Amino acid sequence: MFQEKYQQIERMLRACTGEEDVLLTTGGDHADLASTVAFKLAKKQRRAPHQIASDIAESLSADPKLGDIRVEAAGPYINFRFGPSLLAEAVRAALEPGYGNLPRRPVRVVLEHTSANPNGPLHVGHIRNTVIGDSLVRAFRKAGYPLEAQYYLNDMGRQIAIVSWGFDHLGLARKEGEKEDHYVARVYVAANRELQKNPEIAGEIDHLMQQVERGDPETVGKFRAAVALCAEGIKATLAALNAHHDRFVWESDFVRIGDVDRIIGRVRHLPQAHEDETLWVDLSECGFEKKYILRRSDGTSVYSTRDLAYHTWKGRNYDRMIDVLGADHKLIGGQLRATLELLGEQPPEIIYFEFVSLPEGSMSTRAGKFVSADELVEEVTAKAYDEVTVRRPELPEEERRTIARSVAVAAIRYDIVKVSPEKSTVFDWREALNFERQSGPYIQYAHARACSILEKAGEFEPAYHYETEHEVALARHLVRFPAVVEQTVVELRPHLLASYARELADLFNAFYHYDPVLKSEGETRGSRLALVDAVRNTLQESLATLGIDALRSM
User: Fold this and answer.
1) What pLDDT is attached to residue 362?
2) Are 187 and 163 in contact (CB under 8 A)?
3) Cβ–Cβ under 8 Å, residues 370 and 363
4) Measuring CA to CA, how many Å separate 67 from each of 8, 81, 99?
């Protein structure tokens, strides 16, 4: 409904102004929609923007096609506010299962996220990649896009060679109950210590990398076995965070099927390519002074070469490519895009995110000192269990533990996704688990409250008449949900969904505080209960899009 009205008003503004871009957007607290086209017209008409806005508002107000949409000029701005019939229509729409789903689109999207090196468990620094990526995956699917979520497994790098060497030479057995990725990390850390004590081992590592590049079956098998073991542990961590990938893509496959050789052959023909001891591309014309090396002096390819092959494959199989990368990958991400463009291939859209940290300090896999994602989830779940026990001591223990697991994931995912990707953030479990403030559990609690109200109300005859300040504000916010889903995928900014859900919870709590629901009567009771049900459904849909469980009881 919101999109239909947006498009209708956009068409009317175009007809009225003669402008193709009428600068129509959401109006915030002041209106449902607003246009700043008067600024654009001021130079052409040599008139003050506020006069132009007033004339446009007067002209559109007289058009019966707008129905009960109110048009007003507020200085140079043209504001559109939906009337009672549209608010009633919006609440009805918000009651439908799958509210916010947009029409199916033919554009095939591939979104790669997390893709951490499989030499140990995911740590806190990786979680932001996962949460941003998985939230966008869910948003794209809700927006109607056929999408595949991919994890790119680096099974050829030096780190994997070190892990493979460690398995062959250190004899470290897996401990009882030890998670696969934690076991691999223990081998990796121990192998690095041996490498520091005996630098001659570096030659053995280099030999392993050459062997895997040549496709030596035994070496390839060992590398794959180590990576597959670690990947099982990583998948379990992702599942615990409600994140799932459709495909794990193996880096070595692009060497095996010849795509890497083909890329090298194409790069050699570029005027920007140079071959001395190494093969490299001069990207200075694109603003990159550092050499983009694609082949080592020993003839082996590097990660960048295989990444070019991977993205070329993606570009030929999907219409839109999106990568989620940490800010420390800006150089290699920029070099990748520039080289693909020189080759005439489609470059990916890249979302760079700043890092999430803990108050305790930094993390380093190489030194064996890091906070794993598993440890974080376990710690936050324990604290959530304590909070749930204080609030609901009468519940059976298993039910409290189930709620605590969902609350912990909500706390982690929401606290991370609520901050725009370009800003760094510190995860503080005290704030993230605060049921009374702007947190994931706070939004879950609003949903549980709505469920409780409806359960107490029982059967009711729905009505759709809204007059009070808080009723109208809540109904107006419900209208916007499909548009926020659309805006999220257009701008690749999942924090917009997080903000929407929190604002909906805020508005619902204010409405519940000021406007009695169960004690009201007649049409007012039916209207308010329908509004509560619409909020419940919209919170459920928005939380699901953020990868958070919508709990009925907390």
Assistant:
1) 41
2) yes
3) yes
4) 11, 11, 24
- Short-list 270, 251, 375, 389, CA closest to 310: 251
Query: What's the pLDDT at 322?
Result: 98
SS3 17: helix
Do the two domains 2-82 and 113-357 of this chain adopt the same fold?
Answer: no
What is the reported pTM? 0.91
Residue 533 CB partners (closer than 8 Å, separation 6+):
95, 450, 454, 462
Q: What is the pLDDT of residue 173?
A: 95
> What stretches in the chain show pLDDT beneath 50?
362-368
Looking at residue 455, its pLDDT comes to 97
CATH class of the domain comprising 373-545: mainly alpha
**How far from each other are the two terminal CA atoms of the chain, in whole angstroms?**
33
> What pLDDT, on a 0 to 100 scale, did the predictor assign at position 367?
46
> Checking phi first, is residue 551 left (phi over 0); if not, alpha (psi -120 to 50) or beta?
beta
DSSP β-bridge partners for residue 111: 149, 322
Cβ proximity of 77 and 68 under 8 Å: no
pLDDT for res 238: 98
The string of pLDDT tens digits covering residues 305-355 is 999 999 999 999 999 999 999 999 999 999 999 999 999 999 999 999 998
Pairing of strands 77-81, 356-357: unpaired
The pLDDT of residue 298 is 83
The mean pLDDT of the chain is 93
Pseudo-torsion of CA 517, 519, 523, 527, nearest 10°? Answer: 10
Q: DSSP string covering 346-378, please?
A: PPPEEEEEPPEEBTTB--BTTTTB--BHHHHHH
Q: Residue 122 has which token pair?
A: 């995911």
Homologous superfamily (CATH) of 113-357 is HUPs (3.40.50.620)
pLDDT at 133: 98
Q: What is the pLDDT of residue 286?
A: 95
Given a contact cutoff of 8 angstroms between Cβ atoms, the answer to whether 167 and 208 are in contact is no
The one-letter code for the residue type at 277 is E
Cβ atoms of residues 343 and 152 within 8 Å:
no
Nearest Cα to Cα of residue 312 among 267, 353, 268: 267
Name the pairing type of β-strands 109-112 and 320-326: parallel
Which of the following CATH numbers is that of domain 2-82: 3.30.1360.70, 3.40.50.80, 3.10.180.10, 3.40.50.970?
Answer: 3.30.1360.70
Other Cβ atoms closer than 10 A to 85: 12
pLDDT score recorded for residue 66? 86
What are the structural domain ranges in the chain? Answer: 2-82, 113-357, 373-545
Q: How far apart are the C-alpha atoms of 257 and 223, rounded to whole Å?
A: 17
Q: Where are any strands of DSSP class E within 182-335?
A: 247-250, 273-275, 279-281, 292-295, 320-326
